[in-house]
Amino acid sequence: MPPKLTRRNFLARLGSGAITIVGIAGTGLFAALGDVDDAAACVRPPGALPEEDFLATCIRCGRCTDACPNRCITPFTEEAGRELALAPGARQFGTPVIFARRQACMLCNGEPGDGLLCTEACPTGALIPTKKSAVAVQESVDMGTAVVDTTICYSYNGASCGACIRACPFEGTALRAGLWERPIVDPEVCIGCGLCERSCVHYPQAIRIKPSTDRDPTTRGRS
Ligand code: SF4
Ligand code: SF4
Ligand code: SF4
Q1: What is the pLDDT of residues 30-77, one digit of tens each?
Q2: What are the tens digits of pLDDT across the range 168-214?
Q3: Rounded (5°) CA angle 63-52-142
Q4: Does some domain include residue 1?
């Protein structure tokens, strides 16, 4: 049996050109987007600690929100809670969250410095300082995973679109084109930045981010 393709051995194999990308796209997974619990409901900024540690460490100061040049981080509000179908008064209130369909994380592309600005602004370590090189991002950023709803995506239903693929910072690996530019996600490479969801020309979006349930930047990558 071949070894499991993890984020780390992806990087190793990327160099050798030996990678074979296996995409996932299906209605079953997409349906799971609505099946989130309190601890796994949010797309957090890059570098976020595991959710329980994050909730205990984030002091809701808003510095990451202010630091983001792309204005994609917003404080969690009751309205956000309703959107995510969380109970009123959820513990997430005031914590930073990203709604990719409104504004996605651009990984500080084009900004000065070599770090992701929100992670550098965090005073408590709730967001661990993270470099913005492609290798560093692949090793440590795990906001979620893109999931395609093949029942509504134009490319799976008689047209050729592919707008989401062209928006992906890891085009060809995290998101590659199948026949008729059908988007195919590799969950081991996708970091959940949401640029695909943001750029989807279908409404509601046919590609959306499923928040990570097991992110842990302290271990550098998903298991
Ligand atoms: S990495 Fe940059 S663009 Fe992304 S959320 Fe942080 S500050 Fe904003
Ligand atoms: S597939 Fe979407 S969420 Fe994943 S890396 Fe590409 S643009 Fe970002
Ligand atoms: S942009 Fe939307 S509709 Fe177009 S291929 Fe991507 S998921 Fe499908």
Answers
A1: 333 333 445 557 899 999 999 889 999 999 999 999 999 999 999 988
A2: 999 999 999 999 999 999 999 999 999 999 999 999 999 999 999 88
A3: 70
A4: no
Ligand nearest to the CA of 110: 1
Provide the whole-model pTM: 0.82
Report the domain count for the chain: 1
Residue 130 CA: which ligand 1 atom is closest? 1
Q: What is the Cα–Cα distance from 215 to 213, expressed in whole angstroms? A: 6
The bound ligand whose nearest atom lies closest to the alpha carbon of 46 is 1
In a domain, 170, yes or no: yes
Give the closest residue (by CA) to ligand 1 atom 7. 68
Residue 123, C-beta contacts closer than 8 angstroms, at least 6 positions apart: 59, 61, 63
Ligand 2: atom nearest CA of 194 is: 3
Residue ID of nearest Cα to ligand 2 atom 7: 168
Contact indicator for 155, 148 with CB cutoff of 8 Å: no
Domain limits for position 142: 7-217
Q: Is residue 126 part of a domain?
A: yes
